[in-house]
């Protein structure tokens, strides 16, 4: 009888301790799950270690691209400043210069962009200096028209030549009109040279060229050209007719 009572007491104690152990185990598991969630969030969350690391890497790359563009500007500015007797360089000259240094550029909706190592920056003028702002990641593969050169003009014709980049195998389209709203397409070719004929003397014309690359990407540029005026003869011309 006494032995049985002792065994019952022992069994009750074991069950009590087992219950406490299970509760402790469950609490421990819950705590570990919470800690694991906090750890994953700190790694992968919006402000997590991985995200912050990626942002830091991006900011470093952006700063490096800006520095490269700024160094090119400083290099050219120093040279041009001396050559031009203290005058600042033009934005167009700077864009042409960085293209020569292997930096792709493009013009879109009146704004200019440059690409450095897969990062695109907007290039603008601010108080006679160049301003560089990061825009997005990407590549510039569009063509760019450096300039439209007027080779020759007469009282009725204008001959132009196009200097462009990334236009291998592309097509040029030529437009002309007396205003930007009256431009008409006159022709197209792959040579980048064209002659507009039958024009009025002493008129001002707007010439637009669209450069379209093989893959359909476009760039355009417009210039104004004043036509030549044929000088009028001065004084009266007297003719003397002699009959023999």
Write the layout of secondary structure elements.
Elements: H1 2-44, H2 49-83, H3 91-100, E1 105-108, E2 111-116, E3 119-126, E4 129-137, E5 144-153, E6 158-165, E7 171-177, E8 184-189, E9 193-196, E10 204-212, E11 218-226
Antiparallel strand pairs: 1-2, 2-3, 3-4, 5-6, 6-9, 7-8, 7-10, 10-11
What does the oligomeric state look like here?
A: single chain
Count of β-strands: 11
Radius of gyration of CA atoms, rounded to a whole number = 38 Å
State the major sheet.
4 strands, antiparallel
- Give the count of helical stretches: 3
Strand order of the largest sheet: 1-2-3-4
Q: How would you describe the shape? A: elongated
Order of helices and strands: HHHEEEEEEEEEEE
Overall mean pLDDT score?
82
Terminal Cα span: 175 Å
Share of residues in strands: 25-35%
Helical fraction equals 25-40%
Alpha-beta classification: alpha+beta
Pick out the low-confidence regions: none
């Amino acid at each position: 009888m006494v032995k049985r009572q002792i065994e019952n007491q022992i069994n009750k104690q074991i069950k009590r301790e087992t219950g406490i152990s299970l509760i402790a185990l469950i609490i421990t598991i819950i705590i570990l799950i919470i800690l694991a969630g906090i750890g994953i969030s700190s790694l992968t969350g919006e402000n997590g270690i991985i995200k912050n690391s990626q942002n830091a890497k991006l900011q470093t790359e952006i700063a490096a691209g800006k520095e490269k563009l700024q160094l090119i500007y400083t290099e050219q500015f120093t040279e041009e400043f001396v050559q031009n007797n203290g005058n600042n360089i033009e934005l167009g000259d700077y864009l042409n210069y960085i293209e020569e240094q292997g930096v792709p550029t493009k013009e879109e909706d009146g704004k200019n962009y440059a690409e450095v190592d897969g990062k695109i920056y907007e290039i603008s003028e601010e108080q006679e200096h160049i301003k560089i702002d990061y825009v997005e990641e990407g590549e510039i593969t569009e063509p760019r028209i450096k300039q439209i050169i007027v080779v020759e003009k007469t009282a009725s014709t204008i001959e132009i030549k196009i200097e462009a980049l990334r236009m291998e195998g592309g097509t040029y389209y030529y437009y002309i009109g007396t205003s930007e709203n009256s431009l008409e397409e006159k022709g197209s070719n792959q040579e980048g040279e064209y002659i507009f004929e039958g024009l009025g003397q002493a008129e001002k014309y707007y010439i637009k060229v669209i450069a379209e690359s093989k893959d359909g990407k476009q760039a355009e540029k417009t210039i104004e050209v004043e036509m030549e005026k044929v000088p009028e003869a001065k004084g009266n011309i007297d003719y003397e007719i002699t009959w023999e």
